[in-house]
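QA checklist item 7 of 12: single-chain prediction sanity check.
[x] sequence parsed
[x] length recorded as 681
[x] structure emitted
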Amino acid sequence: MFEKILIANRGEIACRVIKTARKMGIKTVAIYSDADKQSLHVKMADEAVHIGPPPANQSYIVIDKVMEAIRATGAQAVHPGYGFLSENAKFAEALAADGVAFVGPPVGAIESMGDKITSKKIAQEAGVSTVPGYMGLIADADEAVKISNEIGYPVMIKASAGGGGKGMRIAWSDAEAREGFQSSKNEAANSFGDDRIFIEKFVTQPRHIEIQVLCDAHGNGIYLGERECSIQRRNQKVVEEAPSPFLDEDTRRAMGEQAVALAKAVGYASAGTVEFIVDGDKNFYFLEMNTRLQVEHPVTELITGVDLVEQMIRIAGGEPLSITQNDVKLNGWAIENRLYAEDPYRGFLPSIGRLTRYRPPAEVAAGPLHDSGKWQGDAPAGELAVRNDTGVFEGGEISMYYDPMIAKLCTWGPTREAAIAAMRDALDGFEVEGIGHNLPFLSAVMDHPIFIAGTMTTAFIEEQYPEGFNGVELPEQDLRKIAAASVAMHRVAEIRRTRVSGRMDNHERKVGSDWVVTLQDVSFNVTVDADRDGSTVRFDDGSALRVASDWTPGDQLARLTVGDDSLVVKVGKISGGFRIRSRGADLKVHVRTPRQAELAKLMPEKIAPDTSKLLLCPMPGLVVKLEVEVGDEVQEGQALCTIEAMKMENILRAEKKGVVSAINAAAGDSLAVDEVIMEFE
């Protein structure tokens, strides 16, 4: 077995590989750019080598620099993680030339399966059902429009070397095909160093279901069930689960056997994933094969008990699989939520900055053991698992140069319902401050009826949140619980304030029992009766809720029992109350005396400033291109400029007709959020 492995990646996946290597007694080498000098993967590794400036095309995907790090440290093998060089055949060839093992498939498999155009041709020759499309390379935007019309709109424009949602656009018209072709080429060149593009029919109402395969160099191959990845935004997965709530055993077996046959046809040896589009009648179509470890691999590990990273390392070391298809048992249910540095209230645009607070829920080891790679028994009934794969820490910086994913929060339970319930509690207890993030949105998804029913498609986010995500409106029953919790916490804070030392004589402050709690435009008149064990909150309709908690003023997370239910809320102080976040809702909760509430109704509402004649930068990023000049008349929907952040290009468009009166930025400028780019007459 290898003594030292270099991880040619960064962030969460680098940390994930280090954990398994450490378990196996293998030393690790990290590589890092200027932006990652203080990163978690650098701190975790046994050695670390600096490889260049922050942009990936000057550091992480420069093969010569990675090879220099390998030679300098004497690493015997390289794990590429996902993204960057993980599906780069030239990198695998360079390793082979130096006698360094690649913890991934053979070069031939990377070339045939990693390239989406070639893989589709091979799949067709093998009799695998594929989605209609144009498999050849496309020269320019005019040819892209011509091909799109031949296939029929809508079409999917894709980077051949792409992955992770990069270099992908859906086009419904000639204009969108032309624009999408150029943006896809640019993103592909920046992210992968390969700007080849192909086009295929976009299947409406599909489900995205993928099969995890594991093959060795001795001709053995197995599949480890499927992952449901239908909840996507901008073609990037957000929520994954295993198994799929849609498949039956016969379909699972057919998809699995086909995936393994395809892998064997190209001499595959490592962990890999075959992705399918599945329609409502459970017809499945080959989409692509990812010749690497998938981001969402933890859910497969949680239901099969197999450490995929360990298996990849053992296969790269020449060992045969110790697992047969009969050994693979799907146990329980696992769900993964991807925590992104994206602001859901700003259209999920990237958010960068310092993590002033990062407190994930405690990881809970439960479920089956897998030290040998096989099941050693079922998990105790009702026992749950929480796993958080991350590459960040409190005080760390979220950079504009890399993928916006902060962490992958996973839960496991004996049933799908149990795994969802565990995920809800884990999300409520996940504290992140300092940047915009998608925790509220993830919580909303976990409570959405379509997700709960398991009937989602890849159009879920687009259809359910057509105007974007604007928070969650909680039902009155939940508002009552939060109101009761808030007034109980407010009373605790008020009592503490009465005990402040050094107060003037004869100015003792008493805490009343009558309060008005206002939240989400609803007010509750309540009376609080407290004792040593908690508070009883009585509403004016005669109902009452018992509240118990060990919360103390200043705690930013409160775990309470309200009535018969547990409640986890994030707590922030505002004037006259709290900022409460729970189950995707972000609430300003005011707790006032009856007289204060009466006077508050007379206060005028603050009017937001008029920014209708300004184009504001919606995220921190770089100006790639300006599409207009001063004096130009623009129409509604017209492209004004392109901003790049976290490897994604974002085209900003005019919201209404107008004339450009001033341009305050130029191509290449680095802008902060809400910085004025243009002004209009």
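[x] summary fact logged: DSSP finds 17 helices and 39 strands in the chain.
[ ] second reviewer sign-off
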